[in-house]
Amino acid sequence: MKEQDNRYSREEMKEQAGLKLIRALTATHLSLESKQKELVYSKIRKKAKISDQSRVGFISIFARYAAVLLIGAVVYHLLFLNSNESTHSSAEFAEVIVPVGQMAELILPDSTHVVLNSNSSLKYRTSFNKKKRGVELVGEGYFTVAKNTEIPFIVSTNIYDIKVTGTQFNVEAYADESITTTLVEGEVVVEWEDAGQSLVMKPGESVEWSLENNKLKKYSSETFNLLSWQKGLIQFRSAPMQQVATYIERWYNVDVKFENKNSQTVLVNGTMLKDKPVLEVLNLLEMTGQVDYEIIEKGHDRPIVIIK
User: Fold this and answer.
1) ∠ CA(293), CA(294), CA(297), 5° rounding?
2) Domains of the chain
3) pLDDT at 181
4) What is the dihedral sign for C-alpha 283, 285, 287, 292?
5) pLDDT, tens digit, for every residue of 261-293?
6) Are strands 255-258 and 304-307 parallel, antiparallel or unpaired?
7) Which of 44, 82, 154, 270 is most buried when burial is the number of CB atoms within 10 A of its CB?
8) Distances (CA, A) of 139 to 44, 173, 226, 267
9) pTM confidence score
10) What is the distance, to the nearest Å, from the Cα of residue 304 to the centroid of all Cα atoms in its chain?
11) Taking a C-beta distance cutoff of 8 angstroms, is the pair 166, 146 a contact?
């Protein structure tokens, strides 16, 4: 038996890890027709470099893996071998990448619940160690962290870390933008190691790192919109048109440009459904009587919306 076990190469281990993650997508997998399943499997297999032979007789055991419920999200399962350990033990990571216009919901190995917004990604260990539970976020995610006072849960962004033991909070950390953490329940600590800053947050507070001045600030904020986007709603309360434009770009995969700079500061109030086409959303904005728009599609990678 030992000789047979030793025949498993690193490449085969990688294949098995990839298959485990695919099988973890059970809810999505079962809803597809056979031809669709084959097409999806083929695409994922190609990305993960999984051979056809690995499919035969494979039985999934994914208790250590995150159970993932996805809508159009792409999942990569990466196997990193720790060369510093003579026992050849491995540290396994998963990365969930959510395309523009989609959302993803997943349960991490410690039972923490995460909802990822459009154009976001989350990287995490498939089994947390005894010292910390860590994830890396790019984009926006809402976390309901499983309580464990002995092992902190840490969300890392490209600027600062959010450290908690059990709570609910939202993090918005898109590339090349300011980063905002908003606490809904419990207590969190924002730690900016490079600047030697640490801020304790209470429910109803936000901490923002400003891209413009490279500083942290804490302020009181409303949390209604943090729950609405998870339900497929876009809610704005006295939001400047510039902020609305950013949301439209993320969700509908368009570029928004302002012909009249004064339009950027127009305040918007209202609720929109994410599943509505972009034209319907733009028509609602136009009905306010404060802005007009034009769409240019030809000659560009993605449509350009001109706000007038």
Assistant:
1) 145
2) 60-225 (2.60.120.1440), 232-307 (3.55.50.30)
3) 96
4) negative
5) 889 999 998 888 888 888 888 988 888 788 889
6) parallel
7) 44
8) 23, 5, 14, 24
9) 0.71
10) 25
11) yes
Q: How many residues does the chain have?
A: 308
Residue 202: predicted pLDDT: 93
Measured distance CA(42)–CA(269) in Å, rounded: 45
CA 182 from centre of chain = 16
Q: State mean pLDDT over 77-81.
A: 42
Query: Mean pLDDT over residues 41-70, rounded?
Result: 40
Give the C-alpha separation, 274 to 46, whole Å: 31
**Distant-in-sequence, close-in-space partners of 63: CB < 8 Å, separation ≥ 6:** none
Give the pLDDT band (50/70/90) at residue 165: confident
Q: What pLDDT score does 7 carry?
A: 45
